[in-house]
Amino acid sequence: MTARPTQTLRGHILHPDGEFRLGSLSFGPQISGLTTEAAPADLLILPGFIDTHIHGGAGGDTMDGPAGIQKLARLHAQHGTTTLLPTTITHRWPEVLAALRGVREVMDSGGVTGGADIVGAHLEGPFISPGRLGAQPPHAVLPQPDLTAELLALDVIRAVTLAPELPGALDLARALAGQGVRIGIGHTRADADTVSAFLHTLHELGARTCATHLYNAMGGIEGRTPGPAGALLADPHAFLEVILDGVHVHPTAFLLARAAAPGRVLLITDAMRAAGLGDGPSELGGQPVTVQDGKATLSDGTIAGSVLTLDVALRNAVRLGLPLPEVSRMLSAVPAASLGLTDRGELRVGLRADLTVLDADLNVKAVYVGGQAIPLQPTEAHA
Ligand SMILES: [Zn+2]
Predict the structure, then answer these.
(1) 46 CA → ligand 1 middle, Å
(2) Could you read off the pLDDT of 172-216 as tens digits, one per residue?
């Protein structure tokens, strides 16, 4: 094996303590050196973004198999995402299994050249409430031991979304948590007490838990009926996925989560295959979708995933007044912690050289995945 030469970037480097310091960062596959020096530089060097919930992009979808996964991994790397979980949609069981095998195949073949690192799959459904499908097709099923056994044998799931009120949900969650899988609560009609008890049981086992796209497909918060969102916000350990695209979540609802759950909010895209393609017709789980003005909907008006990329989510959060170091944590350190990834998420010597470099206007200027530069395509002006 030939060792790759060490590369060096100079700019304002975001350190794990939340301070930007002018200096240089040296790296091969891992970060090998961080120095502070007064050199003229206007670039911002951040840890690469980690997206734990992403269905598609550039016309590709996780359900398409390896070719679709390659497309989405390359598209989102263009926007600063260096690690992601291809996410399945609720579908007939054989199709879900085939998609999971596709993720495994991509990982086993060495990943996606020119794309984000893939660290496993996010299984979204089919173990969800038929009464809270959102834009998921109507193929929800109950957890069953034989299905659980098939999932465990694949050894590819890193995060799951399930509805805790389903019979058998806790057994499924326990089994997956035993493999280190993050347990997500979503697409649910459970009440707050059910969700709180479910979380409590899992935390006693040492499991990592998460809200799947907080506020979406789980009802609202009322004083007497706080619902799943209230329970997830109130729990001290649950991580909280938020789609900050200006469509899925009201800015105040996002700011509420940020205030209630410091260090627990992570930004995701929930992007579907039309991400990166502009407005026009598309598809989600076999259903026709229309994208107009950056909003993807089914024919009945249901929001159907997003066309968000994480660089846009970053700019949206900054526009709402959040300091960039805090936003960076929501894009890197927090999602890494939610998945139990200890080799990435911050800029520290010894961690993977997953780097996203921005200019002063917060546009992506360079991206490195495990020290490898991603060739960036020229784009029109960023949103
Ligand atoms: Zn989703």
Answers:
(1) 26
(2) 999 999 999 999 999 999 999 999 999 999 999 999 999 999 999
